[in-house]
TrEMBL record:
Domain HMA: 1-67
Protein name: HMA domain-containing protein
Domain of life where this protein originates: Bacteria
InterPro entries: HMA_dom, HMA_dom_sf
GO MF term list: metal ion binding
Entries under CDD domains matching the protein: HMA
Naturally occurring in which organism (per UniProt): Clostridium tepidiprofundi DSM 19306
């Protein structure tokens, strides 16, 4: 599966690292690309292991807001 999430407050390289780590800690994540200009996070994942709700929860648990 592929999904694009809108995440608030991505301003620095540290934010990108924090979000990538939060996402990649989930089993089944294949790829992740973060666009800092528009705050979009594109994720490719295997929905057998993880669903989009779990990915959103992971991002929110490190302090970011997913719209």
């Amino acid at each position: 599966m592929k999904t694009v999430l809108k995440v608030c407050d991505i301003r620095s390289a540290k934010d990108v690292v924090n979000i990538k780590k939060a996402i990649s800690d989930n089993e089944g994540i294949i790829a992740c690309q973060i666009e800092t200009k528009n705050g979009e996070v594109e994720i490719v994942y295997d929905n057998y292991f993880v669903d989009v709700d779990k990915i959103i929860e992971s991002i929110e648990n490190v302090g970011y807001t997913v719209i």
